[in-house]
Design a protein that fits this description.
The protein folds into 2 domains: 2-133, Alpha-Beta Plaits, CATH 3.30.70; 143-215, DNA polymerase, domain 1. By secondary structure, the protein is an alpha+beta fold. It is built from 5 helices and 6 strands; from the N terminus they run ββαββαβαβαα. 37% of the residues lie in helices and 20% in strands.
């Protein structure tokens, strides 16, 4: 009945190359990127320490997370890195605004870029928005939720920490709910799978849904 919102950026830090023995004359793109990545670590620690709201407490984990999953850059061990690229994404609990988190990150980027350009004017940080996923909020007497509960008989309160298109449909004015086979714990694993029993349950659900729609 709910999922986290999401926001992602591709980040490119453009430094100025010099020999590492005179690194004070250059701008190391990797070492500039490192504090931005460490800021994500510090925000994760702060978010984890803060008591969650009642709705956020249902999520695993029950706080907003910041994550860097890719990074590349540099030319050689004795050259200040001219280029560093990394991806930053946010998984935002209900009650917090992904755009606010994005603004906080961009403010840190602006500070880092100003420090770079104080050393050399040709340096910069390029930000490319990658995705924005609105969170799915629980609906009071939601039509989609009610229909799925009638078919499945499940009256529990369930949330997921990943994003889906459900939040976009809800934002556009449609009632939305998430229902389907699989477990996110198996996602992106070497032996990623969906059990035959889950396929069968999904098949039965779709047949029941079609029957109800045909009657309606």
């Amino acid at each position: 009945t709910a999922h986290k919102g999401g926001l992602g950026y591709d980040v490119r830090v453009v430094g100025f190359e010099v020999h590492s023995s005179i690194m004070h004359r250059g701008v190391n793109a990797i070492m500039t990127a490192a504090p931005l990545i460490d800021w994500a670590n510090r925000m994760n620690a702060e978010n984890r320490a803060r008591p969650p709201s009642d709705l956020a407490a249902l999520f695993e984990p029950p706080w907003t997370t910041l994550h860097v999953g890719t990074i590349s850059g540099g030319t050689a061990h004795n050259i200040t890195a001219k280029d560093c690229r990394f991806g930053m994404d946010f998984r935002v609990v209900p009650g917090e605004d992904p755009e606010v988190w994005g603004a906080r990150f961009l403010a840190r980027v602006a500070e880092a870029e100003a420090a770079m350009q104080a050393v050399h004017p040709d340096t910069r940080i390029e930000i490319t928005p990658k995705f924005v996923v609105p969170g799915l909020q629980p609906e009071k007497a939601g039509a989609a939720e009610g229909l799925v509960r009638q078919i499945t008989g499940d009256n529990g309160r369930h949330v997921v920490s990943y994003g889906t298109e459900a939040g976009q449909f809800q934002e556009a004015g449609y009632s939305a709910v998430i229902c389907g086979p699989g477990d996110i714990a198996q996602a992106h694993q070497p032996d990623e799978y969906i059990s035959v029993a889950q396929f069968a349950a999904g098949h039965d659900f779709m047949r029941a849904l079609l029957t109800r729609l045909r009657v309606a």
